[in-house]
Amino acid sequence: LAVVYANNDTGVLSEATISEVWADCGGKVVSSENYISGETQDFTPILSKVKEANPEIIYLTGGYNDIANIILQAQKIGLNNVQFVGPGDVLLQEFLDLVGTSADGIILGGTTPVYSDELLTEEAFGKTVVDFKNRYNELYPDSTCDGFAACAYDAAMLAMQAASHVGTDFLGCVNLHRLRDEDALLTVIVI
Asked: What does residue 83 show for φ and ψ, rounded to 5 degrees?
């Protein structure tokens, strides 16, 4: 395993966690390289070091622009026979527009639904999530519906439900136990 991560709080924590878990499972991290998110444009020096280490898997962290550039530049230097793995929150239409078919086969894991029309169906995610995405897209046509929007929605719904049950009494809010499954976009929230 090689890890290419953004040198920020999220990236550093992700690198430490994936490296520790990989080692605990008996794997070996052969390369760990960081970059400055949004500033690094030429990833070839980093990718050349990674290529030298000959990993079977490369775990990537960062935003969709960075990960798209890493994948495209990896192909240019011949780093092709490797499995790319990354965070699910990069799976946006903008990411797909940048990488095209170059990302075919990448494994992206996350805890939020993918808000693309092709993947977000009622059968897969339920009517509430699909309705939310449709309403969001109507209200904000120039913005991409994503997990951040869903988290904000769930937080607002939880606060409104708490207020409707106990008013503005903070201690009463602590007694609210959960947002109903059918109302949550991401998960059942338990307090």
From this structure: -90, 120
SS3 content of the chain, % helix, strand, coil (to 5): 50, 15, 35
DSSP-assigned states of every residue in 116-178: -TTT--HHHH-HHHHHHHHHHHHH-TTS---HHHHHHHHHHHHHHHHHHHHTT-HHHHHT--B
State phi, psi for 128 to the nearest 5 degrees: -60, -45
- Residue that the structure tokens 């040198």 belong to: 7
Look up the pTM and report it. 0.68
The region of weakest confidence among 19-28, 147-156, 159-168 is 159-168
Structure confidence at residue 178 (pLDDT): 45
* Residue that the structure tokens 């962290």 belong to: 61
CA distances from 108 to 24, 128, 137, 172 (A): 21, 23, 23, 40
